[in-house]
Specification:
The complex is a heterodimer of chains A (383) and B (528).
Chain A: H1 2-22, H2 40-73, H3 89-117, E1 125-132, E2 135-140, E3 145-149, H4 155-158, E4 176-179, E5 183-190, E6 195-199, E7 204-208, E8 214-219, E9 224-230, E10 243-248, H5 250-272, H6 277-291, H7 293-296, H8 314-318, H9 320-329, H10 345-357, H11 361-364, H12 372-379
Parallel strand pairs in A: 1-5, 4-10
Antiparallel strand pairs in A: 1-2, 2-3, 5-8, 6-7, 6-9, 9-10
Helix pairs in contact in A: 2-3, 6-10, 10-12
Chain B: H1 2-10, H2 20-25, H3 29-57, H4 68-103, H5 111-130, H6 158-185, H7 198-229, H8 243-260, H9 263-277, H10 284-297, H11 313-325, H12 327-341, H13 350-373, H14 375-381, H15 385-415, H16 421-447, H17 462-491
Helix pairs in contact in B: 3-4, 3-5, 3-17, 4-6, 4-15, 5-6, 6-7, 7-8, 7-9, 7-10, 9-12, 9-13, 9-15, 10-12, 12-13, 13-15, 13-16, 15-16, 16-17
Classes of the chains: A alpha+beta (383), B mainly alpha (528).
């Protein structure tokens, strides 16, 4: 009976262990270790990481082994008369020199990998990456494709009103698309504060610094969708500006490029079109949600002391020219940045119109709308 | 002649003044040490409460209890308060209590400056904390306050932050001058530099580091002030400035600063391990050289905090190699402690438990530090929770455990009462479990890709964040027990002998427990 009890206990323990290690919760090795990634560089980095890790483990086992042995073998009870030695030149020299040699052994592969990473020659495709509070802009320098990439996770998910999706906080409206097998060079900079562009699967992390252009490169052979994040504190929505890169075969990439160019052409047509106030307001609401709510809030109230309210603002109500100027140029010395490169003429006009119409502003102010043509005129050099 | 009369006059005032003026006007190193320690503990609780807000928000993915703006204010103030308000003043407090007694001096060399350097600290932190109630909120750019987030994009309260950093810096510099002058001029006859106790040595080195780098920090914040209010562009790229310059200046201060927070812990640990191993410390001289090497190296490794800013290859290689080199003297210290325990006669009172935990857990922090030194791997670790785990391992079970060990070790000397050993051990085990449950999983979520300084995270990090939060609350709660134990010991308890611990070495154990208000008015003679 006793034996039976033990067996059933063993059963329970082993099934517990199995559930612990096989269940989704604590299982995957990926959830507790660095990713191996998908490039030659990232695999090299992973190997360095594991090498230094095991070196530390071995040193730890030896040092803590001696320590724990001493703790048990030389207690006051077991060893009432302590030894009196307090130095030993040979031992001391040994434990200075041996660690030094281990470090040299470690420094060699690390320096080699680093030298490989440091190659800033041109890529087959060069993409400029610009960090903004709180989104990324990507400009394909050869194909003149230019877009912003915003988080798409719904605010309701973030505020726990609806269940969180699979790619919670790791999903964007426009992904970066690159072809397999080509050398892609990223030219990384920022528009406002310092951000950092991190793609763990490529082992790339480069700070995006205003006034500087940092480079990084990668060659990815494995198609797939890879997810990364901003890793430099860049203000309140730092956690909400993810990076998604989709690696596709060359032909699929070419198709994507064609498609992007067509979109740009259609956008140009839209600028020419005659817009009504309703159309602009409707479009503008979407633009506002993407670009403005972070600071000025859904209700246009902003945040006292840092982000001015738009609802009832004198400029928004009655000063159309100044209103356009602020969005185009930004405000010196404040968080308000210039949106002239971020928004198309259509989006610029519609978001201005939206803020002039929403929250009762249309009734309180002059109710003037702004059409894309106004923005085009603003951009033309003043005669 | 008048000097003689004055000193005769002093003979009539042995004890402290009565009431609040005792603490306001005091120039007594023991009183000022006590003030520093209580101030530090208060800040530890305030900074700890902020850590609880952070961990509570991270308990689950999604935004639950605070908004991202406030979260960033919490993480900024938590860092600043713990570094400048909790750890540094605690070590200054210990230096005040112990350095004069260890070198056989009657007091600190510059007692009035000592009073001033303490009393400007509460002012600095009142200014800093008051920013929480200002329009636009408290500083929200992290304790490293990288420009331009801390200049062009900062809330208006940044100006108050700058002034408070200036005051803290002035306090630290005055404290360091005092320590150096005391050690250099007031050692008892016969106490040569190499005979000095290691805590005194560790503080001598720390004080030099402080004098070297606090002015650099003051320079950095002054340049920020100029950028914000006087139209300069030190750190503003649009005006021809350089945001990376800020990081170079900051970390030239910042790296020695992290050693400022660990060197005195090395000193404390050496004393405690030799006492409870009942065996002379192994390698006293090599300990001194190891600390000196660490201090010198600390000036040439700063850019390992900046491997991702886009430095040239040569710089990355240099800073990688220099950083790895620090492992050698640090290793020597750990080996010396282990060798001290080897063939000792060890007993496990609370200070020893904290010190052993210090050696093990600080070494784990050292290992992750070594990993972080490997530049290519750092590209993956940098600014993730792996870094958070690393520096919390060297600061919490590192510096903080050493401070707690010191309090348990010397509180019988300070108060004349033994602390409650059972409660002390309970406090140790709760803290030990709490600290590991909090910070060990952070290595994993960092490696798996969770950035630091985020109020919300992707779902794959949820489980270990929950575990970490549970640990944090356990650790936080167990510090209330610490407060209780300390108060209980101050109020009463078993009377302590002058020696307190069997075979304890050092001049402080030759005076009564508690020591008279003025000790060593005639210097003792150090022989051996």
């Amino acid at each position: 009976m006793f034996k039976k009890a033990t067996t059933s206990f063993n059963c329970k323990v082993s099934s517990l262990l199995i559930t612990l290690f096989s269940s989704q919760t604590f299982a995957a090795w990926d959830d507790v270790n660095m990713t191996e990634g998908v490039t030659a560089i990232s695999k090299g980095v992973f190997e360095l990481h594991m090498l230094i890790f095991w070196i530390c483990v071995v040193i730890g086992v030896i040092v803590f082994g001696v320590m724990f042995y001493s703790m048990f073998a030389y207690t006051k009870k077991k060893n009432p008369n302590p030894s009196t030695f307090h130095e030993n030149t040979k031992v001391e020299l040994a434990w200075t020199i041996v660690p030094f040699l281990i470090l040299v052994f470690m420094a060699i592969p690390a320096s080699n990998t680093l030298t490989t990473i440091y190659d800033d020659s041109e890529g087959d495709i060069n993409i400029q990456v610009v960090g903004y509070q709180w989104k990324w802009q990507y400009k394909y320098l050869e194909d003149e494709i230019d877009f912003f990439s915003n988080l798409t996770t719904d605010l309701d998910e973030i505020y726990n009103k609806t269940p969180k999706g699979e790619h919670y906080l790791e999903e964007v409206d426009e992904v970066v698309v690159i072809p397999t097998g080509k050398k892609i060079r990223f030219l990384i900079t920022a528009n406002d504060v310092i951000h950092s562009w991190w793609m763990p699967d490529f082992a790339i992390k480069q700070d995006a610094i205003p006034g500087f252009i940092n480079t990084a490169w990668t060659i990815v052979d494995k198609p797939g969708t890879y997810r990364g994040k901003c890793t430099e504190l860049c203000g309140k929505n730092h956690a909400f500006m993810p990076i998604v890169v989709k690696v596709v075969p060359q032909d699929e990439y070419d198709a994507w490029v064609r498609n992007k160019k067509e979109e740009a052409f259609k956008m140009a047509e839209l600028t020419e079109k005659n817009w009504t106030a309703e159309e602009l307001t409707q479009r503008g609401e979407g633009v506002y949600q993407k670009n403005c709510v972070a600071c000025h809030r859904v209700n246009g109230q902003g945040l006292t002391g840092i982000f001015p309210a738009l609802a009832g603002s004198d400029i928004v109500l009655n000063n159309k020219a100044k209103h356009i100027e602020i969005l185009m140029e930004g405000v010196q010395g404040a968080a308000m940045q210039s949106f002239s490169n971020q928004l198309s003429e259509v989006d610029m006009a519609s978001v201005i119109t939206y803020t002039r119409q929403a929250w009762g502003n249309a009734q309180d102010g002059d109710g003037q709308i702004v059409v894309p043509k106004d923005i085009v005129e603003y951009k033309e050099p003043k005669a | 002649m008048s000097a003689v009369i004055e000193s005769h006059d002093h003979e009539h005032h042995h004890g402290p003044a009565k009431g609040i003026t005792r603490w306001l006007y005091t120039t007594n190193h023991k009183d000022i040490g006590t003030l520093y320690l209580w101030f530090s503990f208060t800040m530890f609780l305030i900074g700890g409460a902020m850590a609880m807000v952070i961990r509570a928000e991270l308990f689950q993915p999604g935004m639950q209890i605070v908004e991202p703006e406030f979260y960033n204010q919490m993480l900024t103030l938590h860092g600043l308060i713990m570094v400048f308000g909790a750890v540094m003043p605690a070590f200054v407090g210990l230096a005040n209590w112990l350095v004069p007694m260890m070198v056989g001096a009657p007091d600190m060399a510059l007692p009035r400056m000592n009073n001033l350097s303490f009393w400007i600290l509460p002012i600095a932190f009142t200014v800093l904390l008051s920013s929480l109630f200002m329009e636009g909120g408290a500083p929200n750019f992290g304790w490293t306050f990288y420009a331009p987030l801390s200049t062009t994009y900062a809330p208006p309260s940044v100006t108050f932050f700058i002034f408070s950093v200036h005051i803290m810096g002035a306090s630290s510099i005055m404290g360091s001058i005092n320590v150096i002058v005391t050690i250099m001029n007031m050692r008892a006859p016969g106490m040569t530099l190499m005979k000095m106790p290691l805590f005194v040595w560790s503080w001598l080195i720390t004080a030099y580091l402080l004098i070297a780098v606090m002015p650099v920090l003051a320079g950095a914040v002054t340049m920020m002030l100029m950028d914000i209010h006087f139209g300069t562009s030190f750190f503003n790229a649009a005006g021809g400035g350089d945001p990376v310059l800020f990081q170079h200046i900051f970390w030239f201060f910042g790296h020695p600063e992290v050693y400022i927070m660990i060197l005195p812990a090395f000193g404390i640990t050496s004393h405690i391990i030799e006492t409870f191993s009942r065996k002379q410390l192994f390698g006293h001289t090599s300990m001194v050289w190891a600390m000196t090497s660490i201090a010198i190296l600390s000036f040439v490794v700063w850019a390992h905090h900046m491997f991702t800013v886009g430095m040239p290859l040569a710089a990355e290689l240099f800073f990688m190699w220099a950083t790895m080199l620090i492992a050698v003297p640090t290793g020597v210290k750990v080996f010396n402690w282990v060798a001290t325990m080897f063939k000792g006669s060890i007993s496990y009172e609370t200070p020893m438990l904290f010190s052993i935990a210090f050696v093990v857990l600080f070494t784990i922090g050292g290992f992750s530090g070594l990993m972080l030194a490997i530049t290519p791997a750092d590209f993956q670790y940098h600014d993730t929770y792996f870094v958070v785990a690393h520096f919390h391992y060297v600061l919490v079970p590192g510096s903080i455990f050493a401070i707690m060990a010191a309090v348990y070790f010397w509180i019988p000397k300070w108060t004349g009462n033994m602390y409650d050993e059972r409660l002390g051990k309970l406090h140790f085990w709760l803290s030990f479990i709490g600290v590991n449950v909090t910070f060990f999983p952070q290595h994993w979520i960092g490696l798996a890709g969770m950035p630091r300084r985020v109020p919300d995270y992707a779902l794959q990090f949820a489980d270990w964040n929950m575990v970490s939060t549970v640990g944090a609350f356990l650790f936080g709660a167990s510090q209330i027990l610490f407060l209780f134990i300390v108060i209980k010991t101050v109020m009463g308890g078993k009377k302590a002998t002058p020696e307190v611990w069997e075979g304890a070495r050092g001049l402080e154990w030759t005076v009564e427990s508690p020591p008279p208000y003025h000790t060593f008015t005639t210097p003792p003679k150090v022989s051996q």
